[in-house]
Automatic annotation (TrEMBL):
It comes from the Bacteria. The keyword Zinc applies. It comes from Bosea rubneri. The keyword Hydrolase does not apply. It holds the Pfam family GFA. Belongs to the Gfa family. Residues 5-124 form the CENP-V/GFA domain. This is CENP-V/GFA domain-containing protein. InterPro entries: CENP-V-like, CENP-V/GFA, Mss4-like_sf. Keywords: Metal-binding, Zinc.
Amino acid sequence: MMHRLDGGCHCGAIALELSLPRPPEEEVIGACQCSFCRKHNARTVSDPKAQARLILRQPSQLQRYRFGLGASEVVLCHRCGVYIAMLMTEGGKAWTTINIDVLDGRARFTRSAEPRDFGGEVLEERHERRKARWTPTELVGWPEESG
Ligand SMILES: [Zn+2]
């Protein structure tokens, strides 16, 4: 049984559906120590057995930001400023790690966040780890070059 959670940005331009293989109470959550997540004090969830749909209701509001190795991009809402997820795309596939505070069920993630610091990785290692650990994601209504 999958556990479905909905969410998205504040203004509704970007919506998110996440189906987890276990209840949110049992999901491991991460406190990513990258320089971007630290500034947001973000707690994130990713599970390779989960499935996510990232739905762009208003494509003009998609804001992307890359930094560091540029292996992935931050997905933000241009209008309301909410940080939704980190996204990696490769070969027509996409993976995300999601900011749990954009989910309506955020309060159900009760495990304490585990600090994660991957600053020592090279680009190749980073791609492989993300494909193994991030959540496979369907991009709905996105510009062609993302798919
Ligand atoms: Zn918004």
